[in-house]
Amino acid sequence: MNDNPHSGHRNRLRKKFIDNGLDGMENHEALELMLYYAIPRKDTNPVAHMLIDSFGSISAVFDAPIDKLKEVGLSENCAIYIKLIPEICRMYMEDKHNNKDKIIDIDNIGERIKNKFVGREYEAVVLLLLDSKYKEVFCGVVSKGSVSACEVYVRKIIEMAVLYNAKFAVLSHNHPSGLALPSNDDIKTTEKVYRALRLIDVVLIDHIIVADDDYVSLKDSGFMDEMY
């Protein structure tokens, strides 16, 4: 005997997902369905509504820090479960678009590299290294910082470029709580990294600044014209 009074509603929502995915579902329904697996013996509909009302949107729920999720009444296990979603999304996008054996389209690097920042609440520096045929040899985080600052370790970037025998590089970092607009420090950092890489015959192609789903290319914006 199933003694869960909410099982009928849960089964209907599960079937709705099986038949149509999340198409046609409201945001709170999608969150409610997900929470079934973190809160098995409780009606998760009011919990889903509470979370969206508290943080403003479903994406804001997923972006909220674990301590903030706990402050509105979630258990630590449930908060961790929610925080897994953007992390898994980033891992999925990185794996799905793994280009290690493919030539990188240098005109579309921003779209390729912005997925490295999905779900990150802190500033991070991502380095993309390419060989002489524009094939990816490395793409990963080389520095992490706070939400407002992240030091770029030039020496580490040089070491990585030498290690992977790179010929081209793309630098990228995110503005978690701001706009994808370059600051004066961003421009100075770009020039510093560009000059350092040139000493080992590696060309810095671009510096991409990411904020949410938006990004700005310093090369396309003309900030790197004087470096070439």
Fold and architecture overview:
- It is built from nine helices and five strands; from the N terminus they run αααααααββαβαββ.
- By secondary structure, it is an alpha+beta fold.
- The protein has two domains: 88 residues; 129 residues, Cytidine Deaminase, domain 2 (3-Layer(aba) Sandwich).
- It has a five-stranded mixed beta sheet.
- It starts with 6 loop residues before the first helix and ends in an 11-residue tail after the last strand.
- The model has no long low-confidence stretch (mean pLDDT 87).
Short note summarizing the structure:
The protein is of the alpha+beta class. Helices cover 43% and strands 16% of the residues. It has nine helices and five strands, in the order αααααααββαβαββ.
What labels describe this entry?
single chain; 228 residues; alpha+beta; Cytidine Deaminase, domain 2; 2 domains; five-stranded mixed beta sheet; 9 helices
Task: Draw up the topology in text.
Layout: H1 7-20, H2 27-35, H3 45-55, H4 58-63, H5 66-71, H6 76-96, H7 109-113, E1 124-130, E2 136-144, H8 154-163, E3 168-174, H9 184-198, E4 203-211, E5 214-217
Parallel strand pairs: 3-4
Antiparallel strand pairs: 1-2, 1-3, 4-5
Helix pairs in contact: 2-3, 8-9
Please give the domain count.
2
Which topology of the largest domain does CATH recognise?
A: Cytidine Deaminase, domain 2
Q: Using the CA coordinates, give the radius of gyration.
A: 21 Å
CATH superfamily of the largest domain: Cytidine Deaminase, domain 2
Percentage of residues assigned to helices: 40-55%
Q: Which parts are unreliable, with pLDDT below 50 for 5 consecutive residues or more?
A: none
Note the total helix count.
9
- In total, the number of strands is 5
Q: What is the architecture of the largest domain at the second tier of CATH? A: 3-Layer(aba) Sandwich
Q: Strand-and-helix sequence, N→C?
A: HHHHHHHEEHEHEE
Tell me, briefly, the overall form: elongated
Percent in strands: 15-25%
Q: Going across the biggest sheet, name each strand in turn.
A: 2-1-3-4-5
